[in-house]
Amino acid sequence: MNVTTLATGLKFPEGPVALPNGDVLVVELLRGTLTRITPDGTTSVVAELGGGPNGAALGPDGRVYVTNNGGMMGFEVGGFTWAGGIAPDYVTGSIQAVDLTDGSVETLYTECDGQQLRSASDLVFDAHGGMYFTDYGKSDGVTGDKGRLFYATADGTSIKLLTGGMDGPNGIGLSPDGTRLYVNETFTARVWWWEVTAPGEIKGGLSMGGSGGGNFLYTAPDHTNFDGLGIEAGGNLCVASMVHTGISVVSPQGELVEFVDIDVDNDPGLTNICWGGEGLRTAYITMASTGQLVKVDWPRPGLRLNYGPTGEPDGEQA
């Protein structure tokens, strides 16, 4: 697979968002910014977010919504950059919204029912304008939080806990018809799913002892860590896979369709995937441990997100 590097020098990029005009946004977790990357590779800071911005998505009002983990520490292993732990200035996790016209930032949520968001990780919007998001939890290396899953409205007025007791929930996505919610866990390398019965209402319980009450879908057959999650138009899940670096393409039935090796300077830290371009056939992938954004021609189109680009030519929106 031909891999083209679009940008380098990023500080642990995550949460790529393709824009209709061909630009791509990423969050830089260790820089605390939302950053724009143009097709020629020029980078510019859209907004100073602080903390540890982790995931991003276009919302119903045109703003970009960011899951912020509150801050992690950067460190190196084998010459590659990683992020983890609790930053010295950590206060709380949060959900933020960024106005792309002026870079202004609004913090919408820092708690739910009196309990703080610990490490908001990734998010996806449904067709009703609400967001499902994961909270990975924080760990000091000895003890750690259990992860949680939330649903919140984009106007900052309503947030609720859907489930907890998870082991590092990270990537999240909705099936093309919106009836399934998928979440993967990082270190267990497992994917779980729930039936969506109404906006912000999910039902699991098909797997005994399923994480967060979820239904088991898939687990990696080797030593792999899962990070972000994208959905193809046909319903396959594309799970960003670290250590054994690439994209695990998993069917809705839990079968491994293919594993797409992505080798960029031996970077083990592939963190996320999104689609843009004509027909949504260009995959944008963040290589966090070497600070790069790359693109590849994907064999199948990505799913048109509820508030994302349409894939129409010349950046047109339907």
UniProtKB/TrEMBL annotation:
Domain of life (superkingdom): Bacteria
Sorted keywords for this record are: Metal-binding, Zinc
Question: How is the co-factor bound, per the entry?
Answer: Binds 1 divalent metal cation per subunit.
Query: Active-site residues?
Result: 227
Which residues are in coiled coils? none
* Recorded GO MF terms: metal ion binding
Tell me which residues make up the SMP-30/Gluconolactonase/LRE-like region domain: 12-288
Q: Name its co-factor(s).
A: Zn(2+)
Q: Which Pfam families does its entry note?
A: SGL
The entry marks the following residues as binding a divalent metal cation, namely 170, 227
Query: What is this protein's record name?
Result: SMP-30/gluconolactonase/LRE family protein
Taxonomic source organism:
Streptomyces adustus
